[in-house]
Structures are given as structure tokens and as C-alpha cells.
Amino acid sequence: MAEVNLQPVVRVEHLSKSFGEGTARVEALRDINMEVFPGQVVGLMGPSGSGKTTLLHCIACILEPSSGRLTLDGDTVYDGHWLKADLRRLRLDKIGFIFQYPNLLPFLDGTDNVAVVLDLAGYSSGAARKRAMELLEYLEVGHRKHAMPRQLSGGEAQRVAIARALANRPRIILADEPTAPLDSARARIVMDLLRRIAVDQQAAIIVVTHDEMILDRFDHIFRLRDGRLETEAAPKAAALPV
Ligand SMILES: Nc1ncnc2c1ncn2[C@@H]1O[C@H](COP(=O)(O)OP(=O)(O)OP(=O)(O)O)[C@@H](O)[C@H]1O
């Protein structure tokens, strides 16, 4: 019988984050609990100022929480304080980040924009470029591998940026409004790509979005309001790998 893998890739327990002190203190996140499983694509929604970016940045180990626990890919990385000395290495190994705008380096072609991450991770130049080209093929922009960013359409540039986020085979992919600059057809293409990546790589994908057009693309939606999660329904059983 197939074994059901119920270990979440992202586990957030009682996580809180405040900024400032005294009367200037802002409770940006209050007692957040969430789990995201392999193969899942989840949405993180909420009004402006509700804490979405703060939560994404805590999970990305860019921002230090104030309290709680964070476990990534079975490894507890924060438990009242960081448990890892080298957070940059941790991010390179475990996390891929997709931004609202592709932020491609304008002086590098599509291939090198992806390969640069692999250079940082210690790949040889040849191996980095080979993997970069494979990823561009996978994301159906292989024919644009030598194009400079200014020559790419918005959707093509976003796919190169997604390839870059995938370069190091991260188990966790965090996306901040990845479809905001795209029309609804291209937004759906990007969401379908993220779904395929989640399934193929058994990755957990968290997407911050305001985009009502893509709500049906999520396995589960976490809604934040004033730093609290409004719903914590169990993830869809069908989305769990067997
Ligand atoms: N560096 C900071 N210093 C002080 N307060 C901050 C800081 N970053 C965020 N905040 C506050 O924390 C709260 C949550 O902000 P956050 O950016 O996470 O919200 P958001 O849901 O991502 O908003 P938006 O949809 O507008 O991007 C807000 O009240 C914000 O003003």
C-alpha cells in the first residue's frame, strides 16, 4: 500500500511578529499556525496591512519572528530564536522566491539570469548553464534562452524569473503577487505552471495574492486580518500525495 506522506514542508506554530516599541508597537502577526504539504499550492490573502508580506518574509527567513516556531522541510529553523547560523545558505538550499516583477538582471540573457543563482550555490559554470537551459525548456521559454530581459514579454520574463526561483530545486516556493502585472489568461498560465512544479518537485508553494481571478487555482486559502489567520481549514485530502 502506498505510504501517505503527511509531513508538512512548511509548519508555522504560534508565530508572532511585532515591530517597534511602546505606543509605536505594531502587532503584525499574532499566533499564526499553518501547514503546507508537499504538492500543495496555497493562497495567502487579506487586506492591505494584514501581515501577508511579514508572514512570507518570516517563512523565507528574511525577517526574524518575535516568537513561535518555524519548521521547513522537517528542519526546525526558528524556535524563539534562529537555530541556524547561516540563513543565507538555508535560503539558497530550501527556498525559491518569486516577486511581483521579474527583477531580471538587465545585462544578462535569460539563461544567465537563471544560471547566476546556481553559480552562487557552487555549481560549475557549464553545469549551471545546462540546468538553466533545461529549466527554461520546462517553463516553455527555451526558445527565448538567449533573449535579453528588455526583449521579453511580461509573461516570458515572469517565466524566466520562475525558472530562477526553481534553479536550486527548492522544496519551498514563496511568491509575492506573481500574477499582478499579467492579464488573466497569462495569470492562469503562471498558476498552472506553479501547480505542475508543486506536483513534479513535491514542493510547497505559498502565493500572496489579491487576484480574485485565480482563487480556484489554490488547494487552500489562508486569510489574514489584523495579523491573525481567519480560517485554518484542513487542506484538501485530494491534494496530498499518496
Ligand atoms: N519594518 C516595519 N516596521 C514597522 N511596521 C511594519 C514594518 N513592516 C510592516 N509593518 C507593519 O506591519 C503590518 C503588516 O504589514 P505587511 O506589509 O505585512 O502587510 P501586507 O498584508 O503585506 O500589506 P500589503 O497588501 O499592503 O502589502 C502593517 O501594519 C505594517 O505597517
TrEMBL record:
UniProt name for this protein: ABC transporter ATP-binding protein
GO molecular function, one term: ATP binding
Origin species: Pseudolabrys taiwanensis
Keyword tags: ATP-binding, Nucleotide-binding, Transport
Entry-linked Pfam families: ABC_tran
Domain ABC transporter as annotated: residue spans: 10-242
Family to which this protein belongs: Belongs to the ABC transporter superfamily.
Transmembrane segments: none
SUPFAM superfamilies, per the entry: P-loop containing nucleoside triphosphate hydrolases
